[in-house]
Design goal:
Length: 171
């Protein structure tokens, strides 16, 4: 019976040690998952911009071919695809070398594509196609604004997707 106070003291000491352990373990681990998460996100974003740009370049060529062929329906489709590729970056909170890439994408990219879609609807595919250089200027203005001036886009002088017909549907 005389041992009881000792047991209580030991038990409470064990309890205190357990609590110290509980509070110290998560604390010492807190930095790691967050740091790994942030790093992974950074790399993920870098990959996304390059991948979206590759898609954007292809859609740009196809949009130009559709416009050249006078295919309003197809040109509208590619404007929409370009807008989607741009929105991915615009909504992605992408920062690169201190430049807010997402914000620039909204200003230069999304706004221009929306204007072209409005022009297509109001004035037709010919009027839209005549503004092909407007889109190219927007691409390049943004490349300059994001410190990528060496990536220069131009209105295609030729483009070929040999397995796709860009002419309007005649059926
Ligand atoms: C945010 C504004 C912005 C707009 C608008 C923009 N780009 Fe880019 N583009 C970038 C950035 C930033 C990079 C560099 C990506 C990287 O560092 O991985 C890039 C890279 C590229 C590349 C190089 C990657 C590759 O696949 O060769 C191409 C091509 C490209 N853009 C095409 C275009 C085209 C075509 C347009 C217009 C239809 C356009 N871009 C509009 C920001 C923009």
């Amino acid at each position: 019976m005389r041992r009881l106070p000792l047991l209580i003291a030991l038990a409470s000491l064990a309890g205190v040690l357990f609590l110290l352990y509980r509070t110290s373990v998560p604390a010492s681990h807190v930095g790691h998952p967050a740091a790994i998460g942030a790093h992974a996100e950074e790399e993920h974003e870098e990959i996304e911009v390059a991948v979206s740009m590759g898609r954007l370049q292809r859609f740009h060529q196809k949009w130009w071919l559709a416009g050249k062929a006078g295919n309003a329906e197809l040109a509208r489709f590619y404007l929409h695809e370009m807008e989607e590729a741009m929105e991915m970056i615009a909504d992605g909170h992408v920062m690169d070398e201190g430049v807010n890439v997402s914000e620039k994408m909204e200003t230069y990219g999304v706004a221009t594509v929306n204007n072209l879609a409005a022009l297509l609807d109001s004035a037709g595919v010919g009027a839209m196609h005549a503004e092909a250089s407007t889109l190219v200027k927007a691409c390049n203005s943004c490349h300059m604004a994001t410190k990528h001036a060496y990536i220069r886009i131009k209105v295609p002088d030729t483009a070929a997707f040999p397995d796709q017909d860009f002419a309007p549907n005649t059926q």
